[in-house]
Amino acid sequence: MRTIAKILAGSLIVVLSLIPLKTKGQAADQGAAANKSRQMKINIIIDGNTATAVLEDNPVSRDFYSLLPITANFEDFASKEKITYLPRKLSVKNNDANYEANVWDITYYIPRGNIAIFYKDYGPSKDLAKLGRIVSGNEFLTQNRTFKARIERAEN
Fold it and tell me: Global pTM?
């Protein structure tokens, strides 16, 4: 009886050792793939040219994404940013305070309810919420002082 139990136990170990297990790297790759498929990408189309951005996964960005597609008139502000106003204010509940905008960040200026895309450095501000970042086509955003653009969801 003990011999049969030992054989069965040994067989079980052999069978279990044949089952492939995920390594940490494989699990991380699958997690990154899942995040990529949920990534919110947008296109800003100006005179047939496209700037592409990736939005942050936060409530303010998701609210902005829900408005798309929109057509917006951008203007230069303070020789540091391009701004436009949205059809309505975004929800800023749970916004992180003292965010420091970087060049090519897309932000939401809470007091005025406008989008700001920075093309020069800007200091920390508790009035900004980060929406995302321009990842390509930034040169199209600085060619003119003012421009009309269509902002739409991009395919992932």
Answer: 0.74
